[in-house]
């Protein structure tokens, strides 16, 4: 299992990676992207099984990354890890083809709850 | 097809169109406890203006509701926060890591504020720089002692 973490914050990528290791899931490798274009390249070249993306990023928002991924016909599992938990954000994420949304700050438990149905 | 999943938060604030002192405090405590796991307690009074090497991080919520969220901390505390986020010792983190981590703290709190308002708004990217709190402001301000240093959180609704 290959997981791509997309976040412009190196600190947050570290936290997401560390939290993933604290869940019950094992046997995954993590790759990182620091912006949307970097993510698109790594989705094309690395073929991750799951993308965990921030919402609020410079140049390309997470929602625009998701739309470009889906427009290309790629059905990779895609979840947002974001502090923006408004109903509008959740609705837009869902309608754009996201599989789940985890709100920051998160715990290993909340991460597990989101990933269980995806990775089971 | 797997249903869309929204992972529960440890403490989910209820939505309304005003941010209270209590709701802001809940969001800040959530970050300090869940994300940073740093010991802290609330402080009363006004922020000190003579603290050297203060850093400020800010995000702006724009749209049908507008506000600026600012956090202040001595560089020493910002570095301690970065250590918690990176799970690294102080001496292996460079200044860019410290600014990144401090900016992400205000970004998370600001996103929670925006989510609580639940109106048609956008959240800016965080910016970080050297600045001190303005104790004459009438904005919503809360302070914490975090690892022995002051963390000031200020929400200016306008």
From TrEMBL, chain A:
Keywords carried by this UniProt record: Phosphoprotein
Organism lineage: Bacteria, Pseudomonadati, Planctomycetota, Planctomycetia, Pirellulales
Domain Response regulatory: 2-119
Residues annotated with 4-aspartylphosphate modification: 54
SMART domains associated with the record: REC
Pfam families: Response_reg
Name of the protein described by the UniProt record: Chemotaxis protein CheY
One example of a Gene Ontology biological process annotation: phosphorelay signal transduction system
Gene3D superfamilies reported for this sequence: 3.40.50.2300
SUPFAM superfamilies: CheY-like
Automatic annotation (TrEMBL), chain B:
GO BP of this protein: chemotaxis
UniProt KW Iron keyword: no
SUPFAM superfamilies: CheC-like
Keywords linked to the UniProt accession: Chemotaxis
Keyword S-adenosyl-L-methionine recorded: no
InterPro entries cross-referenced by the UniProt entry: CheC-like_sf (IPR028976), CheX-like_dom (IPR028051)
Protein name: Chemotaxis phosphatase CheX-like domain-containing protein
Source organism of the structure: Stieleria neptunia
